[in-house]
Amino acid sequence: MTAPARPAAGATPLVRWIPVVVPVVFLVTFFGYPVATILGRGLWPGGQLDLSPLGDVVGDPGLRDVAWFTLWQAALSTVLALAVGLPGAYVLARYRFPGRSIVSALIVVPFVLPTIVVASAFLALGVEPSLGAILLAHVFFNYAVVVRVVGGLWAHLDPHQEEAARVLGASRVRAFAGVTLPALRPAILAAASITFLFTFTSFGVILVLGGPTRSTLETEIYRQTAQLLDLRTAAALSILQLVAVVVLVVVAGRFQGRRAVALGLRATAATARSVGSLGDRALLGANLALMLALLGVPIAVLVARSFATANGPSFGFYRALGELRSGNVLFVPPVDAIVNSLLFATVATAIALMVGGLAAFAVVRHRKGRALEAALALPLGISAVTVGFGFLIALDEGPLDLRTSWIIVPISHALIAIPFVVWLIAPILRSIDPRLREAAAVLGASPRRVWREVDFPIVGRAFAIAGGFAFAISLGEFGATLFIARPERPTLPVVIYRLLGQPGAQNFGAAMAASTILMALTVVAILTAERVRVGDIGTF
Amino acid sequence: MARRVPSILGCAVVSCLLASSALMSTFGGTPAGAVPAAGTHDGVTLTLVTHDSFAISKSVLRAFARETGITVRVLPSGDAGAALNQVILTKDAPLGDLLFGVDNTFLSRALDEKVFERYRSPELARVPAVFRIDATHHVTPIDHGDVCINDDKAWFAEHKVAVPRTLDDLTKPAYKGRLVVENPATSSPGLAFLLATVDRYGEDGWRVYWERLRANDVKVVSGWEQAYNGEFSAGEGGGDRPLVVSYASSPAAAVYFSDPRPTKAPIGTVLDTCFRQTEGVGILRGTEHPRAARRLVDFMLSRRFQEDVPLQMFVFPVRDDARLPAVFTEFTDVPTHPAILPPSAIGSHREQWIDEWTAAVLR
């Protein structure tokens, strides 16, 4: 039912292959080559392939436990995030209520917060390091992934289809399971895959909230690479990670299959309804209460702390942000850190939308698209330290000597954001009813006009959501850049980490103030992205 | 049907790449120092690779630039271990000209990997022998800090409990459930405190000591931030443990970074529990500017640099005639006999000790 994979008549091969070639070149240059180089250091010492570390790792019961724990905590976190997030996706997609757009922007805030800051809020609320704390934090961080990825499609589904099933005698459950669920499947799978990969490679949450006895492949690879410099073991562990990620992505792809159905997508305005019945109100109220408890309370703790100076509530810590260590060579005024953060995020978002957007078209239109989709997901599942150290030893020559260039920071952010873009856009592209395009073509529209009038308005919203995510990923990303030699362009998360590195009420308070600014930036960025009007169907 | 789509986006990619390369040339690579002025090394820019905790005053580097014509670009590269490992992995195409931040716990790895040029600074004459950690003169000592137990003075006064004085005291019932430490596998002060106990109780006794600490309900967290700002009762997170593994300089920092500044330090230091970390700089093998790099090493040992170090990094200078700022002389106690282990012993046993510690304390 999807658009046929045949080339359009008259297209030059170059133009036709750009959607494949650009993402492949980007991925190979900034991911495949660096990762292969660092794995090579571990597995080809002295020019000889030595696979014994793989055997050592698989044979080590301690490391087997680590691998098993990594898998099941990620699986459990994903199930929990879906369970908590899907009802949230429903109410935000289907109900019209005052403050809806603010709520849907606010839920992205956790996504950008440094783990150490979130952990301090959790501790203040009495959440002690434990398995429960890990799961809670993973739901906290990934709630927005589920709500926005699934909600993005849900908001466009025509409710009349489910209503038709009800009229024809199907029960409410049956109508949902038979009509809505299959339509949502690609988005649910995308949200589940993203959440799984994020939690599979979770680093700070495990270290800070898991307590000292818990480790995952990610924390173990960090220890082997950054602390012990045991590249053999690190390479073997990275290969385990790779295998797990490839299996996951292939399985997820199978489930999505080629059965993606063309859906009658509708404008969100046409699908949302006002809150009428008691049941509606209860459902909406329960979800808002859940968001408040899960996301609102920890965030409120941080904001409150940013104002709680020794002299009572004041902006003292915000002023301190501009004054503490202002003579230091690495100091940046808060405005500069904000500008750096915004600049990196803008460049990262542009790269991610460009490369990911092209890839989404390739994924839908080319027969080998699935392989590209899977390959682009790999950076999400590979340790940041592997990629970071790989950059250092691979990208060290000629025009590619980007090791100390600032561009490497947005590039590393884009690597993480690209799978979002592909997974958000490809299902929607697949779902566009080909008859719409055919009708437009029959009525004399040029291919360009068909794209502009048919495809883009529908894909536009997915682009906006993906762009918002890419922006938020870059604003908050610290893990990937932790292992890259950063030139003197500190972003807000870097400033926060520096402040938290020394004792004193001013340092801590200023870190909370910087976190609050970071949250505010995120909300503004997401709200701005949502204001973008893309045709009638994409209006929010 | 798909024909136009790629071409639109394709053009956009090209323009994006062009735009970003233009940005790169205008935005990237501005050195952190100041305008180079008259000197013998006019126009030379040195890249100083270091860890994320590095800090120095702009005015100090500006003075160096005025004096020598050398501009210094600072490149923070993760924690001390990660920064050293990055330098080791990029030996063949060095990331910079010098590495600052190799301490006695990592010194032997740096020497084994031969990442540094030999250099014996004439300024070393002003550095007491106790800080000269590298007899081979590949790493020049710049600062030292003592990892110690800090106590929450208010808590001990309020609960009418005596502040512990020794490592042994920590195993007494009075201090059950009062101490929080960092995991030596993931934290530099955590490792230093483990080394303090190895030094005090010896190869045969330190595990027994930790088993007693464990029986006394010691709490282990991953890093300093969680220990100090999460669990420590005098930290900002409002924890409930009045004893924490931190630094002898923490009382000074706690005063300096408070508004209004208290007249007495809110925390104290248990002087019998300290381990000395001495940290230095080395010139990276393969630098194109060996002479300029040596000037920088000399400068880092000069009084101007040394006297700037305490309030920037909250560590102590190694130079004997460097004056300490008032907040240090007033509020810090310096241990007279901190634990000191030879770097080679640390280098050859570090992983084994960490593994044994993990087995004794966490399993």
Q: What would you say this structure looks like, in words?
A:
The complex is a heterodimer of chains A (540) and B (363). By secondary structure, chain A is mainly alpha-helical. Chain A has one domain (13-38, 60-306, 317-531): MetI-like (MetI-like fold, Orthogonal Bundle), CATH 1.10.3720.10. Chain A contains 24 helices and four strands. Chain A has a two-stranded parallel sheet with strand order 1-2. The longest helix of chain A is centred in the N-terminal third of the chain and has 34 residues, at 61-94. Chain A starts with 12 loop residues before the first helix and ends in a 9-residue tail after the last helix. Mean pLDDT of chain A is 84; it is low at 1-10 and 535-540. Chain B has two domains: 32-145 and 278-317, 3-Layer(aba) Sandwich (D-Maltodextrin-Binding Protein, domain 2), CATH 3.40.190; 146-276 and 335-361, Periplasmic binding protein-like II (D-Maltodextrin-Binding Protein, domain 2), CATH 3.40.190. Chain B has twelve helices and ten strands. In chain B, strands 1, 2, 3, 4, 5, 6, 7, 8, 9 and 10 form a ten-stranded mixed beta sheet that branches. In chain B, α2 (58-68) links the parallel β1 (45-50) and β2. In chain B, α6 (188-215) packs across α12. The longest helix of chain B is centred in the middle third of the chain and has 28 residues, at 188-215. The termini of chain B are far apart. Residues 1-38 of chain B have low confidence and may be disordered. At the A-B interface, α1, α6, α11, α16 and α18 of A face α1, α2, β2, α3 and α7 of B.
What is the fold's blueprint, element by element?
The complex is a heterodimer of chains A (540) and B (363).
Chain A: H1 13-43, H2 52-59, H3 61-94, E1 95-96, H4 100-106, H5 109-112, H6 115-124, H7 131-154, H8 159-167, H9 172-200, H10 204-209, H11 217-227, H12 231-256, H13 268-271, E2 273-274, H14 278-307, E3 308-309, E4 312-313, H15 316-323, H16 334-365, H17 369-381, H18 384-394, H19 408-431, H20 434-442, H21 447-476, H22 479-482, H23 492-500, H24 505-531
Parallel strand pairs in A: 1-2
Antiparallel strand pairs in A: 3-4
Helix pairs in contact in A: 1-12, 1-16, 1-17, 1-18, 2-12, 3-7, 3-9, 4-24, 6-14, 7-9, 8-9, 9-12, 9-19, 11-12, 11-18, 12-17, 14-24, 15-24, 16-17, 16-19, 16-21, 17-19, 19-21, 20-21, 21-24, 23-24
Chain B: H1 4-27, E1 45-50, H2 58-68, E2 71-76, H3 80-89, E3 98-103, H4 107-112, E4 116-117, E5 140-152, H5 153-158, E6 179-182, H6 188-215, E7 219-221, H7 224-231, E8 243-247, H8 250-256, E9 267-284, H9 290-300, H10 303-313, E10 316-317, H11 326-331, H12 343-361
Parallel strand pairs in B: 1-2, 1-3, 6-7, 6-8
Antiparallel strand pairs in B: 3-9, 4-9, 5-8, 5-9, 5-10
Helix pairs in contact in B: 6-12
